[in-house]
Design a protein that fits this description.
The complex is a heterotrimer. Chain A is built from ten helices and ten strands. By secondary structure, chain A is an alpha/beta fold. Classes of the chains: A alpha/beta, B mainly alpha, C mainly alpha.
Chain lengths: 273, 316, 339
């Protein structure tokens, strides 16, 4: 399988604190990969490193062989990596339609001057973008809501919209940051199907950061496990499920929290609480 | 030797000027610390302090015989200082109340709203205070009554230090000490510090955030009022717009020291005061106001957290 | 030609016709209203251009008067020194073609210079957020004013008189039409949606591939250009300039209009500009009628007290202004297909 994203011995230090140490990861084309770990393991840090919010203190990030270190987030999106956010970040004063349309900016050929002269080429491109936006919305059943304001959408629809918006940037790799947060079990099942659908239909790779074990184990082909900034395991779900280091990382966490059964993330990899 | 005197002279001038800026800057920095908000109207509280003194002094004039003394003597010093001190304390109290009222009426209702809204409100309050004062008391400069005799301090040789400058410096030192005591050693001071670090945790821990915020405004306004009185002793012409320039310079001072950082505000004030004095001394008096803006721009572009400030990362 | 540019040309033509036939008539018979009309036009340009930065892009600039000052003084200097030459080449000061060309060139120079200044100020400043940006733009505005104050050949603290051509209704409202066209045309395109994303959520905009800095600087430069144009129009209208006319209060004047109109609504801001230009005059007239007791006359005439109260009340009760940022204009015009 072709390699798409490659993290090579990446380390991030903030002052004296090492958030992530010598982390290596590889994602191939059309792969659905998961990144899990107890709270504070460094998952979001890795995430932010791939998307350019943080620059690796050491190590390299490659996308299809091209080094991404130091590029600004918008440039990295330009290279083909899109993301969603843990706390949904939609453009609240724009309609559903415009939220997606705005994300097409990356690939438009016209600039501000064309918007003023309004020549034929400009009008055609605008028309194309409108069509493609509508198509995207239709695929995800959001087209009838296209004039609605995002805040009026139910939570699940907002999450879906965020994913659609990210897809409008035509990524090769989609990063999902805890998309199942705050969802009911039914919604989570729908989400799992949605992610698989996206991955197949758009022929892209997906990196999923998620706390919910059922979701991760259910759809990811391979999983990386982080604990205290260090990779402690990697492999297919069956292997991760049984890995003693992984179990300890999670059980250790529940012990520290005392009433392990009651803590929100007290779930061993095979889904037992 | 002459050079040394010259340098010392400018230093004294700079520290005196800087003390005024420091007192005003403290108000900006404390309010920013607890509310993450720049109180645009703060400079006008300084102006109101001066006007409070202007209006109060005649009421106590024949008790304390303002303006009747020519020099300080060992016999009259205590008497003069208590008169001036009373006016200052009264003015500080009045402005403390004004500060609390402003917060209560104009800022508190907007606490949950985007910060831009309250910034605009602050501009509105500032304009209102200035223009209302102008309307009721006239736009022309008024003569501030002489609370203490102003003359060169004896015994310093060629060094020309005015009694008013000495008063400014000593009063500022005293006020800074009192402030440090309040912030470091009292419960409410602890609450202020905690609030600047984490407001949510504070209210969960049983702190009444509103009371602490009001107190912070009161404290900052009192210091600004003190500055207004002190500066008017030195330069007795007051006008409704006098808060504008010192206000923005004091704000620069607060940013220079690290906004939200109390020692930083004092340090920043001193630096700005000394810089401004230097600019005048080396022969460019027309740029005295511009230097503060230049410092502002340099600081914001190169080290926005200021000399003593902390970096705050936005969580993604 | 598509609908957009066509409407622009049409509107400009209307302005030209009105000005050609009505200018002198209005200017002489209705001098007072003529002055107000020109002032309204200038304020609309200032407010709609600032709205691009403060409203659509969400960057709070408090230094707009500084760029207006640059435009005013640049245009004044240009006209004072170069007009004799230009007018001479084109047939002398009596020749209307000559004066109009002279004014146009002067205005254009002013706009370009102000835009360059906007770039110079914008690039370093727009890295800052919220309060800090407001303060630093205020600082730049003041530095510009102080610099002019200390520059002898710009008249320093004395009045600088402006000779040469005079502002006409055509140039004023032609510029108004152009400014509105640029702002609306830009914002209502896919490219233009980028401005609003910067306002709504910069981090998300960044993640969607939008170069937020580029948008902020572009908005700032365009706004500065038109502020410069407004300054030039002002200079050739009043025929004299002082640095005091471009201080912080002038910036606040414009900001109040933008807030009253509703940040992000060009229609709203235009209406607000008209209202707030007329309001002081109306109040002044009202103050002298028998309805108002003499004690309150001064209060009504004091524009700034009313402005400040207006600001405070607006923020407390209706911060989205008259037209909000979900203005009718936005929904109706969000299709950019030219239909």
């Amino acid at each position: 399988m072709d390699s798409l994203l490659k993290l090579h011995d990446c380390t991030i230090r903030f002052g004296g604190l090492t958030a992530v140490a010598s982390f290596s990861m590889e994602i191939c084309k059309r792969e659905l990969v998961g990144l899990i770990g107890p709270n504070g393991a460094g998952k979001t840090t890795v995430f932010n490193m791939v998307t350019g919010v943080y620059r690796p203190t050491e190590g390299d990030v490659f996308l299809a062989g091209e080094r991404l270190n130091g590029l600004k987030p918008y440039a990295i999106t330009g290279k083909g990596i899109a993301r969603t956010f843990q706390n949904i970040r939609l453009f609240n004063s724009l309609t559903v339609f415009d939220n997606v349309r705005a994300a097409f900016n990356l690939h438009i050929k016209h600039g501000p001057s064309h918007a003023l002269t309004r020549g034929k080429a400009f009008l055609k491109e605008e028309s194309d973008i409108e069509k493609r936006t509508l198509e995207l919305l239709k695929i995800f059943n959001l087209d009838r809501l296209r004039e609605a304001m995002c805040k009026s959408l139910p939570y699940g629809d907002q999450r879906r919209l965020e994913i659609v918006r990210a897809l409008a940037t035509q990524p090769k790799l989609l990063l999902l940051d805890e998309p199942a947060a705050g969802m009911t079990p039914t919604e989570k099942s729908n989400l799992m199907r949605l992610i698989e659908f996206v991955q197949e239909t758009f022929d892209i790779s997906v990196l999923l950061v998620e706390h919910d074990m059922r979701v991760v184990m259910g759809i990811c082909k391979r999983i990386y496990v982080l604990d205290h900034g260090v990779k402690i395991a990697e492999g297919p779900p069956e292997k991760i499920r049984k890995d003693p280091k992984v179990i300890e990382a999670y059980l250790g966490e529940t012990e520290v929290e005392g009433e392990g059964r009651n803590s929100a993330n007290a779930e061993t990899p095979n889904g037992e609480r | 030797m002459d050079r040394l005197i010259e340098i010392l002279q400018q230093l004294v001038n700079g520290v005196s000027l800087g003390s005024i800026y420091a007192l005003i800057a403290l108000g900006y920095t404390m309010v920013y610390g607890v509310l993450r908000f720049i109180n645009f109207a703060h400079g006008d509280v300084y102006m109101l302090g001066a006007y409070a003194g202007y209006l109060l002094a005649p009421l106590f004039a024949h008790i304390f015989k303002f303006g009747e003394f020519d020099t300080f003597t060992p016999e009259n010093t205590l008497f003069i200082l208590s008169g001036a001190g009373l006016i200052m304390i009264l003015s500080m109290a009045i402005c403390a109340v004004i500060g609390v009222l402003i917060e209560r009426i104009a800022y508190r209702p907007l606490r949950e709203r985007p910060r831009l809204n309250v910034l605009i409100t602050a501009i509105g309050v500032s304009l209102f205070l200035q223009n209302m004062t102008q309307y009721r008391l006239g736009a022309n400069p008024k003569a501030f009554p002489q609370l203490i005799p102003v003359h060169v301090v004896e015994g310093l040789g060629n060094l020309t230090v005015l009694t008013s400058q000495l008063a400014i410096i000593i009063s500022t030192i005293i006020l800074l000490i009192v402030l440090r005591f309040i912030v470091m050693k009292t419960k409410i001071g602890l609450a202020m510090r905690a609030l600047s670090l984490n407001p949510t945790a504070c209210s969960i821990m049983g702190v009444n955030n509103d009371v602490v915020i009001s107190f912070t405004f009161a404290l900052g306004s009192a210091l600004a009022a003190a500055a207004g009185i002190l500066v008017s002793m030195d330069s007795p012409s007051i006008n409704p717009l006098m808060g504008n320039l010192p206000g923005i310079k004091a704000f620069v001072a607060a940013v220079l020291g690290g906004i939200g950082n109390i020692p930083g505000a004092a340090l920043g004030g001193l630096i700005i005061g000394i810089l401004e004095t230097l600019v005048i001394a080396i022969g460019f008096p027309q740029w005295r106001d511009g230097i503060a803006f230049a410092v502002l721009i340099v600081i914001l572009l190169f080290k926005p957290t200021g000399i003593l400030g902390r970096v705050e990362r936005e969580k993604v | 030609m598509s609908r957009g540019p066509l409407s622009l040309i049409l509107a400009l033509a209307v302005c030209l016709v009105v000005s050609l036939f009505g200018e002198n008539f209005i200017a002489s018979k209705f001098a007072y209203y003529y002055d107000i009309l020109i002032t309204i036009g200038i304020n609309i340009i200032l407010a709609t251009s600032l709205n691009l930065v403060n409203g659509y892009t969400g960057q709070f600039s408090l230094g707009h008067a500084g760029f207006m000052a640059i435009g005013a003084y640049a245009s004044a200097s240009w006209s004072n020194h170069l007009d004799p030459i230009i007018l001479g080449m084109l047939g002398g000061p009596g020749n209307p073609l000559a004066t109009n060309v002279g004014l146009f060139v002067s205005m254009f120079f002013a706009g370009i210079l102000a835009a360059i200044a906007g770039f110079g100020v914008g690039v370093p400043s727009l890295r800052l957020k919220g309060d800090y940006l407001a303060i630093v733009t205020l600082g730049f505005g003041e530095i510009i004013r102080v610099a002019i104050l200390n520059t002898d050949f710009l008249g320093a603290s004395r009045r600088l008189s402006v000779t040469g051509s005079y502002t006409t209704l055509f140039w004023t409202y032609g510029s108004v039409v152009l400014c509105i066209y640029v702002v609306l045309g830009l914002v209502h395109s896919t490219y233009g949606r980028g401005f609003v994303t910067v306002r709504d959520d910069e981090v998300a905009a960044d993640a969607m591939g939008i170069n937020t800095t580029k948008y902020k600087v572009l908005a700032f430069v365009i706004a500065s250009f038109f502020a410069g144009i407004a300054g030039a129009l002002y200079a050739h209208f009043k025929a004299f300039l002082t640095p005091e006319g471009f201080n912080f209060f002038r910036s606040v004047d414009v900001v109040v209009i933008v807030i009253l109109g509703g940040m992000g609504s060009t229609v709203g801001v235009t209406v607000a500009a008209v209202l707030l230009t007329i309001l002081p005059e109306a109040l002044r007239a009202l103050a002298h009628t028998q309805f108002v007791p003499p004690a309150y006359q001064g209060l009504l005439e004091n524009r700034l007290i009313l402005y400040s109260l207006l600001l405070i009340v607006l923020m407390l009760t209706r911060p989205q202004g008259l037209f909000g940022d979900r203005g009718a204009s936005r929904k109706r015009l969000s299709r950019s297909r030219g239909d």
